Amino acid sequence: MAADPAAEPYAALGAYLTGFEAERIAAVLAAGDTTGQALKEVNPTRRVEARRLLTAAGLGHHQVDMSVAVLRAIAGARSIRATLTPVWTMPGSEATTGRLTGQMRRLIDDARMSVVCSSYNFTPYSQMWTALRDAAGRPGMSVTLYLDADKGTPQQVAAAMPGATVYRTAAPAGATKPLVSHAKFIIIDRALVLLTSANFSHSAEHTNIELGLLVHDTTLAASIESTMRSKHGTLYERVDVP
Protein backbone atom coordinates (compact mmCIF):
# COMPACT_ATOMS: atom_id res chain seq x y z
CA MET A 1 0.00 0.00 0.00
CA ALA A 2 1.33 3.44 -0.94
CA ALA A 3 2.12 5.90 1.85
CA ASP A 4 -0.47 8.60 2.48
CA PRO A 5 1.16 11.86 1.25
CA ALA A 6 -0.91 13.85 3.73
CA ALA A 7 0.61 11.91 6.63
CA GLU A 8 4.23 12.44 5.60
CA PRO A 9 4.62 15.92 7.19
CA TYR A 10 3.52 14.46 10.53
CA ALA A 11 5.95 11.57 10.17
CA ALA A 12 8.78 14.00 9.39
CA LEU A 13 7.87 16.16 12.38
CA GLY A 14 7.67 13.11 14.64
CA ALA A 15 11.04 11.85 13.44
CA TYR A 16 12.69 15.23 14.08
CA LEU A 17 11.32 16.40 17.42
CA THR A 18 12.39 14.81 20.68
CA GLY A 19 9.67 13.89 23.16
CA PHE A 20 10.75 16.74 25.43
CA GLU A 21 10.56 19.29 22.61
CA ALA A 22 7.13 18.09 21.46
CA GLU A 23 5.70 18.23 24.98
CA ARG A 24 7.09 21.72 25.66
CA ILE A 25 5.80 23.14 22.34
CA ALA A 26 2.38 21.62 23.04
CA ALA A 27 2.28 23.12 26.52
CA VAL A 28 3.07 26.63 25.27
CA LEU A 29 0.49 26.43 22.47
CA ALA A 30 -2.12 25.08 24.90
CA ALA A 31 -1.46 28.07 27.15
CA GLY A 32 -2.49 30.39 24.30
CA ASP A 33 0.91 31.61 23.16
CA THR A 34 2.09 31.96 19.55
CA THR A 35 4.03 29.46 17.50
CA GLY A 36 7.07 31.75 17.77
CA GLN A 37 6.86 31.67 21.55
CA ALA A 38 6.43 27.90 21.53
CA LEU A 39 9.49 27.42 19.34
CA LYS A 40 11.64 29.12 21.99
CA GLU A 41 11.38 25.79 23.81
CA VAL A 42 13.54 24.31 21.02
CA ASN A 43 17.29 24.79 20.94
CA PRO A 44 18.17 27.72 18.60
CA THR A 45 20.21 25.43 16.35
CA ARG A 46 17.10 23.30 15.72
CA ARG A 47 14.46 26.03 15.69
CA VAL A 48 14.44 26.83 11.96
CA GLU A 49 13.90 23.22 10.93
CA ALA A 50 11.28 22.70 13.65
CA ARG A 51 9.36 25.74 12.35
CA ARG A 52 9.59 24.46 8.78
CA LEU A 53 8.22 21.06 9.76
CA LEU A 54 5.40 22.55 11.85
CA THR A 55 4.41 24.75 8.90
CA ALA A 56 4.54 21.82 6.48
CA ALA A 57 2.22 19.89 8.79
CA GLY A 58 -0.15 22.86 9.07
CA LEU A 59 0.37 23.11 12.82
CA GLY A 60 0.71 26.17 15.03
CA HIS A 61 -1.28 28.63 17.12
CA HIS A 62 -3.93 28.92 14.38
CA GLN A 63 -4.77 25.22 14.91
CA VAL A 64 -4.31 24.88 18.66
CA ASP A 65 -6.40 21.80 19.39
CA MET A 66 -5.06 19.79 16.48
CA SER A 67 -1.49 20.95 17.06
CA VAL A 68 -1.53 20.07 20.75
CA ALA A 69 -3.03 16.66 19.98
CA VAL A 70 -0.39 15.83 17.36
CA LEU A 71 2.50 17.10 19.46
CA ARG A 72 1.37 15.22 22.55
CA ALA A 73 0.99 12.08 20.45
CA ILE A 74 4.61 12.53 19.35
CA ALA A 75 5.70 13.07 22.96
CA GLY A 76 3.75 10.01 24.08
CA ALA A 77 5.24 7.81 21.37
CA ARG A 78 8.72 8.98 22.30
CA SER A 79 8.13 8.24 25.99
CA ILE A 80 7.20 4.58 25.54
CA ARG A 81 9.75 2.26 27.11
CA ALA A 82 11.37 0.04 24.54
CA THR A 83 12.54 -3.48 25.21
CA LEU A 84 15.67 -3.53 27.32
CA THR A 85 18.66 -4.10 25.07
CA PRO A 86 21.79 -5.74 26.55
CA VAL A 87 25.12 -4.43 25.25
CA TRP A 88 28.36 -6.24 26.02
CA THR A 89 32.09 -5.76 25.96
CA MET A 90 34.20 -8.91 25.72
CA PRO A 91 37.72 -9.54 24.45
CA GLY A 92 38.11 -9.97 20.70
CA SER A 93 34.91 -10.94 18.92
CA GLU A 94 33.32 -12.78 21.84
CA ALA A 95 30.49 -10.23 22.25
CA THR A 96 27.73 -11.31 19.86
CA THR A 97 24.84 -9.29 21.40
CA GLY A 98 25.41 -5.58 20.91
CA ARG A 99 28.77 -3.93 21.39
CA LEU A 100 29.15 -1.56 24.32
CA THR A 101 31.99 0.57 22.95
CA GLY A 102 30.32 1.20 19.62
CA GLN A 103 26.94 1.78 21.25
CA MET A 104 28.27 4.45 23.60
CA ARG A 105 30.02 6.30 20.80
CA ARG A 106 26.99 6.09 18.49
CA LEU A 107 24.64 7.43 21.16
CA ILE A 108 26.81 10.46 21.80
CA ASP A 109 27.42 11.15 18.10
CA ASP A 110 23.65 11.04 17.49
CA ALA A 111 22.73 13.33 20.42
CA ARG A 112 20.84 16.44 19.38
CA MET A 113 20.30 18.34 22.66
CA SER A 114 22.08 16.93 25.67
CA VAL A 115 24.42 14.30 27.07
CA VAL A 116 24.58 13.62 30.81
CA CYS A 117 26.94 10.92 32.00
CA SER A 118 28.73 9.59 35.03
CA SER A 119 31.83 7.43 35.40
CA TYR A 120 34.27 6.32 38.08
CA ASN A 121 37.36 6.26 35.89
CA PHE A 122 37.88 8.42 32.79
CA THR A 123 41.10 8.38 30.78
CA PRO A 124 42.21 10.04 27.51
CA TYR A 125 42.63 6.54 26.05
CA SER A 126 38.87 6.00 26.15
CA GLN A 127 36.80 6.47 23.01
CA MET A 128 34.42 8.42 25.23
CA TRP A 129 37.07 11.12 25.63
CA THR A 130 36.95 11.97 21.92
CA ALA A 131 33.17 11.48 21.65
CA LEU A 132 32.35 13.76 24.58
CA ARG A 133 34.92 16.36 23.59
CA ASP A 134 33.41 16.51 20.10
CA ALA A 135 29.86 16.68 21.49
CA ALA A 136 30.79 19.50 23.87
CA GLY A 137 32.06 21.48 20.89
CA ARG A 138 28.85 21.17 18.85
CA PRO A 139 26.65 24.32 18.84
CA GLY A 140 23.60 24.03 21.05
CA MET A 141 24.72 20.83 22.81
CA SER A 142 24.70 20.55 26.59
CA VAL A 143 27.25 18.08 27.98
CA THR A 144 27.38 17.36 31.72
CA LEU A 145 29.81 14.91 33.35
CA TYR A 146 29.87 13.55 36.90
CA LEU A 147 33.23 12.07 37.88
CA ASP A 148 35.02 10.60 40.85
CA ALA A 149 37.32 13.27 42.31
CA ASP A 150 40.22 10.83 42.62
CA LYS A 151 39.92 8.37 39.71
CA GLY A 152 37.87 10.37 37.22
CA THR A 153 40.53 12.98 36.34
CA PRO A 154 37.89 15.76 36.56
CA GLN A 155 40.34 18.66 36.29
CA GLN A 156 41.97 17.14 33.22
CA VAL A 157 38.57 16.50 31.65
CA ALA A 158 37.42 20.08 32.31
CA ALA A 159 40.60 21.44 30.72
CA ALA A 160 40.20 19.24 27.63
CA MET A 161 36.46 19.90 27.25
CA PRO A 162 35.78 23.57 28.04
CA GLY A 163 32.35 23.29 26.45
CA ALA A 164 31.25 20.69 29.01
CA THR A 165 30.07 21.16 32.59
CA VAL A 166 32.11 18.90 34.86
CA TYR A 167 31.33 17.90 38.44
CA ARG A 168 33.47 15.88 40.84
CA THR A 169 32.63 14.21 44.13
CA ALA A 170 32.91 16.46 47.17
CA ALA A 171 34.17 15.73 50.67
CA PRO A 172 31.34 15.65 53.25
CA ALA A 173 31.64 17.84 56.33
CA GLY A 174 34.28 16.40 58.62
CA ALA A 175 35.64 13.99 55.98
CA THR A 176 39.28 13.97 54.95
CA LYS A 177 38.71 12.87 51.35
CA PRO A 178 35.99 13.09 48.68
CA LEU A 179 33.24 10.55 48.26
CA VAL A 180 33.64 7.73 45.73
CA SER A 181 31.33 8.00 42.72
CA HIS A 182 30.80 4.56 41.20
CA ALA A 183 27.62 5.34 39.23
CA LYS A 184 28.07 4.71 35.49
CA PHE A 185 25.47 5.85 32.99
CA ILE A 186 24.87 7.89 29.84
CA ILE A 187 21.64 9.81 29.16
CA ILE A 188 20.95 11.16 25.67
CA ASP A 189 18.42 13.91 24.91
CA ARG A 190 16.55 13.25 28.18
CA ALA A 191 15.22 10.02 26.67
CA LEU A 192 17.79 7.26 26.08
CA VAL A 193 19.51 5.75 29.12
CA LEU A 194 22.50 3.43 29.03
CA LEU A 195 23.29 1.92 32.43
CA THR A 196 26.64 0.17 32.34
CA SER A 197 29.25 -1.58 34.43
CA ALA A 198 31.99 -0.06 32.23
CA ASN A 199 34.24 2.83 33.13
CA PHE A 200 35.38 5.28 30.46
CA SER A 201 38.69 3.55 29.91
CA HIS A 202 40.45 1.56 27.18
CA SER A 203 40.35 -1.69 29.14
CA ALA A 204 36.63 -1.34 29.92
CA GLU A 205 35.89 -0.72 26.26
CA HIS A 206 38.08 -3.42 24.73
CA THR A 207 39.39 -6.15 27.04
CA ASN A 208 37.14 -6.40 30.11
CA ILE A 209 33.85 -8.27 30.34
CA GLU A 210 31.26 -5.51 30.79
CA LEU A 211 27.48 -5.39 30.54
CA GLY A 212 25.15 -2.46 29.89
CA LEU A 213 21.38 -2.08 29.47
CA LEU A 214 20.00 0.42 26.94
CA VAL A 215 16.45 1.66 27.46
CA HIS A 216 14.30 4.40 25.92
CA ASP A 217 12.45 5.80 28.94
CA THR A 218 11.92 9.53 29.43
CA THR A 219 10.66 9.04 32.99
CA LEU A 220 13.78 7.13 33.99
CA ALA A 221 16.01 9.71 32.25
CA ALA A 222 14.28 12.61 34.02
CA SER A 223 14.50 10.86 37.39
CA ILE A 224 18.25 10.22 37.12
CA GLU A 225 19.02 13.74 35.89
CA SER A 226 16.87 15.30 38.62
CA THR A 227 18.52 13.22 41.34
CA MET A 228 22.01 14.19 40.16
CA ARG A 229 21.12 17.89 39.98
CA SER A 230 19.74 17.75 43.52
CA LYS A 231 23.20 16.67 44.76
CA HIS A 232 25.01 19.73 43.41
CA GLY A 233 26.72 21.46 46.31
CA THR A 234 26.42 18.44 48.61
CA LEU A 235 27.73 15.25 46.98
CA TYR A 236 29.15 16.92 43.89
CA GLU A 237 30.99 20.19 43.28
CA ARG A 238 31.57 21.95 39.97
CA VAL A 239 35.06 21.90 38.48
CA ASP A 240 36.25 25.30 37.27
CA VAL A 241 37.81 25.44 33.82
CA PRO A 242 41.46 26.51 34.27
Structure described in brief:
The protein has 242 residues and is α+β, with helices and mostly antiparallel strands. The protein has ten helices and eight strands.
Residue share in helix: 40-55%
Overall shape: globular
Structural class: alpha+beta
CATH superfamily of the largest domain: Endonuclease Chain A
Number of domains: 2
Report the sheet-strand fraction.
15-25%
Please name the CATH architecture of the largest domain.
2-Layer Sandwich
Tell me the series of helices and strands, N- to C-terminal. HHHHHEHEHEHEEEHEHE
Give the low-pLDDT segments: 1-5
Main pleated-sheet profile:
8 strands, mixed
Number of helices: 10
Distance between the termini: 60 Å
Mean pLDDT: 88
Strand order, biggest sheet? 1-7-6-5-2-3-4-8
Q: Rg from C-alpha positions?
A: 20 Å
What does this structure look like?
- It is built from ten helices and eight strands.
- It is of the alpha+beta class and 242 residues long.
- The protein has an eight-stranded mixed sheet, with helices on both faces.
- A hairpin with a 3-residue loop joins strand 5 and strand 6 (192-196).
Defining key terms:
10 helices; 242 residues; disordered N terminus; Endonuclease, Chain A; alpha+beta; 2 domains; 8-stranded mixed β-sheet; 17% strand
Topology:
Layout: H1 8-16, H2 19-30, H3 35-39, H4 44-56, H5 64-79, E1 85-89, H6 100-110, E2 114-119, H7 127-136, E3 142-147, H8 154-160, E4 165-169, E5 185-188, E6 192-196, H9 202-206, E7 210-216, H10 218-230, E8 236-238
Parallel strand pairs: 2-3, 3-4
Antiparallel strand pairs: 1-7, 2-5, 4-8, 5-6, 6-7
